[in-house]
Amino acid sequence: MKIVAIANQKGGVGKTTTAVNLGSALAELGHRILLIDLDPQANATSSFGLQGVEETSLYEPLIGGASVTEKIFPTRRDHLFIIPADLDLAGVEVEIARMPNHLTRLAETLKPLQSDETFDFVLLDCPPSLGILMTNALAAADELLTPIQCEYFALEGLVKIVRLVEQVRDSGANKRLELAGIVMTMFDGRTNLSEQVVAEVREHFGERVYETVIPRSVRLSEAPSFGKSILEYAPNGAAANAYRALAREFMQRHAPPATLPDSSHTPASENLET
Length: 274
Fold this sequence. Notes:
Elements: E1 2-6, H1 15-28, E2 33-37, H2 43-46, H3 59-62, E3 73-74, E4 80-83, H4 89-97, H5 105-109, H6 111-116, E5 121-125, H7 132-140, E6 143-149, H8 154-171, E7 179-185, H9 192-205, H10 218-222, H11 230-233, H12 238-254
Helix pairs in contact: 1-12
């Protein structure tokens, strides 16, 4: 089992959208996926129509009041499960801060999942902040996947993320953490800016940037309001196909060298949906 933190300290970059739809696309490929919503705003939770359910989050497991396995819920999609978020998570940062193991509390909470190997991947949808929950996610993760919006300040945000990863490693909380992937989101092929930003990020971060880019899409924005992933809401659209391509590329990166599948990606020029 591999734990992947999907995080960016900046909001509005497609972080939750990527967590929900990458998880859905990986499940569609037959992989066993657990999505953990660590954001008290619970946007990933509402994307599956599970909002308003109380006492379902990691709050109790994080403070030692329950097992993480008690909080796992199935979704409508085969192979895809979720631990929802609720408002209790907003207060858990204060509780964790008082604990001697405040940096590694989440890692210890997730240990039962590692022992039984029920899931292939655990995706952590992190809050858009640099608080205790995000720090705990980075301390628990094997790697970091960062969505970056195709806009002017993209590189500035990435520099901050790289520094944060270095701080977590240097603190001793998680020496294995690495920025393993960068996903460019909200790509608009009608503008030169999107192309320029993608090119600049690739120049600085090389192979860590996924070939697949995620298009700016009205349907992608609409899907959560219907409690659906884009694969359910508009399964044949450009955005759904982009997340399927991202899932294939993700698995290619995580496959043993001897079993690498054929390369498959969605070129930036093909990723446009209105």
